[in-house]
Amino acid sequence: MTKKAKPLRSDGKKTYQQLLDTAGNLFALHGLASTQSKLIASEANVDVALINYHFGSRQGLYQQALITAHASIIHLEDLESLIKRESDPQQQLKSMLHIIVSAALTDDSWHFKLLAREFLAPSENLQILMTKEIQPKIQIMKHIVSQISGIKPDDPALIPMLISVMSPCFVMLVAGNKVPGPLSEMRQQSVEQLTAHLYRFALGGLLAVRNAT
After folding, report:
1. Residue 11 has pLDDT above 90, yes or no
2. What are the tens digits of pLDDT across the range 39-98?
3. 3-state DSSP call for residue 32?
4. Which of 58, 153, 155, 205 could covalently link to 146 via disulfide, CB atoms 3.0 to 4.6 Å apart?
5. Where are the domains positioned within the chain?
6. Which of 63, 46, 44, 45 is nearest to 5 (CA)?
7. Under a CB-based contact definition with an 8 Å cutoff, are residues 57 and 51 in contact?
8. What tens digit of pLDDT does each residue of 143-175 get?
9. What is the C-alpha to C-alpha distance for residues 163 and 12, in angstroms, rounded to an integer?
10. Model's pTM, two decimal places?
């Protein structure tokens, strides 16, 4: 069971971030089971007791690394701001895709590698990530897709549409820039080009659903 972490003191922010980045990289490379607290502390050059102080436990550190990794793709606050700033749901969709594509094409840190490992071999910690980070974002994304497609947010038919919209982004994030072939070629496009491409296909599908109902 994960212990509750203590509130973060201002003078501990540097250590907190150092532990998070070090552990995130190690977790991405070796997984949670093979990454012991002593190794994390040694690599971060801090006392091992600081893991429990800042995160409650090694598992708590892993869970925070997952949450931080997902937030690096798109922050909940960015989605909420986008909804308030853009009144047109089609523009909301385009802006959302632009944020995600920008992250996928520019970030080669541990964040995506860790998420890929967790999604491909799920642990009990995935539910924490879903509850704290992913589900609130899904609700906003469902609202956008609902507005464009005309399908109510609580209609089960909306989920396959949301998955269809987000799947290309998910593939790019999980694959990273190390996979040769079509994915590598796709990553040669600019953020604007790739966003426009994904937007046209997503919008075309959602409008087709709207026109068919």
Report:
1. no
2. 999 999 999 999 999 999 999 999 999 999 999 999 999 999 999 999 999 999 999 999
3. coil
4. 153
5. 10-69, 74-212
6. 63
7. yes
8. 999 999 999 999 999 999 999 999 988 888 877
9. 40
10. 0.87
**Phi and psi, residue 36, nearest 5°:** -85, 160
Structure tokens at 109: 């840190």
DSSP letter, residue 154:
T
CATH architecture, range 74-212: Orthogonal Bundle (1.10)
Question: Could you give the residue ranges of the DSSP H alpha helices within 121-157?
Answer: 125-129, 135-149
Tell me how far apart the alpha carbons of residues 135 and 21 are, in angstroms, rounded to a whole number.
24
Residue-by-residue DSSP string for 186-208: HTTS-HHHHHHHHHHHHHHHHHH
Compute the average pLDDT of residues 16-27: 97
Query: Alpha carbon 12 to chain centroid distance?
Result: 26
What are 202's two structure tokens?
């997503």
- Whose tokens are 């109510």? That residue is 152
CATH 1.10.10.60 corresponds to the domain 10-69:
yes
The label of the residue with tokens 């990289």 reads: 25
